[in-house]
Amino acid sequence: KKPALSIVYLTKRPGGYDMLFQSLAKQTVKDYELICVDELAPWRSTKAKAYAKELGIPLVDVVPSKPKDEKLASTKYGIAKALNTGLMLASGSFVAIAMDFIWLPPNFVERTLEFYKEHPKSFLAYPELIFSDKDLNAVLNNDHMSDSSSLTIFKEDMRAAPSTLEEKGWTVSAKKPEDVVNRKPGF
Fold it and tell me: Do the bridges between strand 5-11 and strand 94-99 make them parallel or antiparallel, or are there none, so unpaired?
């Protein structure tokens, strides 16, 4: 059965899978698939696939972005090619794009699908939250930051909701309202 939502996750940095996978495992609606386009896939796709299976996440694949032709096989591919790769693998009626170090609320899939049922010809962009800690060296594992096979870069558990980070002394802030612009397409 074709899923209602394809989530395309783009990454090129060590870490990031812990937050994403833990939040996807807690979704209230499971009608989704996950495609990971990861420039570090050759080093960590096996680990990521095992982790997704352990958590019951419907992972389609973990792949690097594909070069346009053989002449470009040794070049870095960039976000456009990563997006195209993910979109080629997506089979859902709707697509959500997620990038490095993202946490999704438990009702992310549910709310995204509800939005698109009401607004099928719209583009949905979520506001960004910025997390900061006064001493990043206290929470980052430098060995993991240079390990291409790492699924996390943090010393402590960073797989929970942002509110739990605030309890640990982190500051969580949204983009300023004047920086967030909603546009209604005219078609």
Answer: parallel
